[in-house]
Amino acid sequence: MAPITEVEGRRVPLSNLEKVLYPATGFTKGEVLHYYATVAEVLLPHLRDRAVSFLRYPDGPDGQVFFTKNVPPGTPEWVTTAEVPRVEGPSRMVVVQDLPSLMWAANLVTEFHTHQWLVDTPQEADRIVFDLDPGTPATIVHCCEVALWLRERLAEDGIEAYAKTSGSKGLHLLGAVRGASSERTSEYAKGLAVEAEQAMPRLVLHRMTRSLRPGKVFVDWSQNAARKTTATPYTLRARPEPLVSAPVTWAEVEECRSPGQLAFHAQDLPPRVQDYGDLLAPLLDPEHAGPLP
C-alpha cells in the first residue's frame, strides 16, 4: 500500500519514491515530488483555473508515455474538476488549484500541459503562445534570434512578450491578451509567423512540413487553437534528463551562444526562483493583457 502523507490537511498517497525515473542522472520519483513541492509557489498560479492535460511517463521517459485528458480513475473527490468544451462534446478535466492537488498529480509522474484560456471563459483566450521549434542542425540559439524579432513585432502591437525554454530543444514565447477568441488569436499568431518567415526566410518556417524544417526554426502558431495545450511553465519534461520548461530573462535570450546556456534541470530552478521570482508573473496580471489589433 502506498504511504500516505498529509498536505495542507489532505491525505495524499505517494508511491515508489525510490524509483529512478531519469536513468541518465539517477533522478528519482521522490526527487520529482520534491521538485514540484519546492516550485509550487510559482507553478500553481499558472495551473490555477486551467484545465490540465497530463503527459504521463510513470516508468520514465524510456517507458510508455501517454496523454491523459479526462479525469483519471481514482482521482480524489477533493481535486477540482471542470467540464470543458471539445469538438466531440464536453468532457471533464482536472484543474490543479492547490498544493495537495499538485502533489497528487505529480505522483502520477506527469508533464503539465494547459490551454491558453481559463475554464470559466473557454470562449476567450487570455494568452498567446509561439512554440519555436528548431530543426537540426538549428538549435535554441537560432530560436533566440527568432524570439527577439517576435518580441519587437509583438511590442509594435502593444503585446509584451515573455520567454521560457520548452524543456526540450526549443523556446516558447508568451504574451497576455484579452478580448479575443482562440480562433482570432490563432489567426493573428499565424500572421506574425508568416511575417517572421518573410523577414528571415533562411531561418524561419511557418508551416509544419517536415521536409522543409532542417536548419530552420518552425514558428508553431497553432497551439493557440482552443483544443491545443502547451507545456506549463516550470513543468518537468519527459526527456532523458530532468529538464524543466523554465522562464528566462531577455538578457539570457540575447546572450545565448550555445544550447547548454538555456538548458535547466530540476535542481537549477529553486535558486533561479529565489533570484528572479516568477519571471512570467506579468502574464497573470490582467493589466498586462493587451487587445489584439
TrEMBL record:
Signal peptide annotation: none
Keyword entries, A-Z: Ligase
EC assignment: 6.5.1.1
Boundaries of every DNA ligase D polymerase domain copy: 28-279
GO molecular function: DNA ligase (ATP) activity
Family annotation (InterPro entries): LigD_pol_dom (IPR014145), MtLigD_Pol-like (IPR033649), NHEJ_LigD (IPR052171)
Enzyme class, UniProt record, top EC level: ligase
Protein name as annotated: Non-homologous end-joining DNA ligase
